[in-house]
Design a protein that fits this description.
Keywords: ATP-binding, Kinase, Nucleotide-binding, Transferase. This is Kinase-like protein. It comes from Lentithecium fluviatile CBS 122367. This protein folds into 2 domains: about 80 residues, Phosphorylase Kinase, domain 1; about 120 residues, Transferase(Phosphotransferase), domain 1. The protein starts with a strand and ends in a 7-residue tail after the last helix. The chain is of the alpha+beta class and about 210 residues long. The protein is globular. Helix 2 runs parallel beside helix 5 and helix 3 packs antiparallel against helix 5. The strands form 3 sheets. Strands 1-2-3-5-4 form a 5-stranded antiparallel sheet, with no helix packed on it. A 3-stranded antiparallel sheet has the order 6-8-9. A hairpin with a 3-residue loop joins strand 1 and strand 2.
């Protein structure tokens, strides 16, 4: 298969992002390549494999994993669609844009509240919690939003509490339950999504208010 590889950037110290252009099929993919040390840090390999596993459940607002492969200490995830950016960048840029010049981009936020709520509800119905919901893990593409980065997500049972009390996730969006190491299931994602919604509402209310 003829692919044109375009370097996009790095995520952390072990992950490289590239855009793959399938010239025959005329489709674009994103490749996330993890290069692990011979002696990876605890849970590092587990988190890579978890990201491969979770998003295979299809939903219009969740990134799709098309293929995965491994070469020695390299693990690759082929995903689509290829995003334009993430919600964090979108909000930061919009916060600096006068309301008279935003071309309807603030109004677009009102639709995304529903899109993101449906996506989280879907993941929870499938027995999956994301555990790191934040604007940087929500991709934007042609007026749409998609959850990505499932490296620390986990599956849970509807009738049981999570056994994990490890403090993970991004502090700004982390729930009180996770901070205090209390066991919980859905409420962590719901709290984090609420924090994201608060940022969205702040930007929606007018420019220059995010900080």
């Amino acid at each position: 298969m003829a692919f044109c590889h375009v370097f996009v950037g790095r995520v952390g110290s072990c992950c490289v992002l590239r855009r793959l252009d399938d010239r025959i099929a005329g489709r674009l993919y994103a490749r996330k390549m993890f290069v692990l040390l011979r002696r990876p840090k605890p849970n590092e390999l587990e988190r890579v494999l978890q990201e491969v596993k979770i998003p295979n459940n299809l939903h219009q607002h969740v990134i799709r994993v098309m293929e995965t492969y491994q070469r020695k200490n390299m693990y690759a995830i082929i995903m689509e669609p290829v995003a334009e950016g993430n919600l964090g960048i979108y909000l930061s840029d919009l916060d600096e844009t006068p309301a008279s010049e935003d071309s309807g981009r603030r109004e677009q936020l009102t639709r995304w509240f529903w899109c993101l709520t449906k996506a989280i509800a879907y993941l929870h119905a499938e027995g999956i919690r994301h555990r790191d919901v934040k604007p940087q893990n929500i991709l934007t593409l042609e007026g749409d939003v998609l959850f990505t980065d499932f490296g620390i997500s986990e599956e849970f049972q509807e009738t049981t509490m999570s056994e994990s009390t490890e403090i993970i996730g991004t502090r700004t969006y982390r729930s009180p339950e996770r901070e205090s190491r209390h066991r919980s299931v859905r409420r962590e994602d719901i709290f984090s999504l609420g924090a994201v919604f608060l940022e969205m509402l702040t930007v929606y209310s007018g420019p220059g208010r995010l900080n």
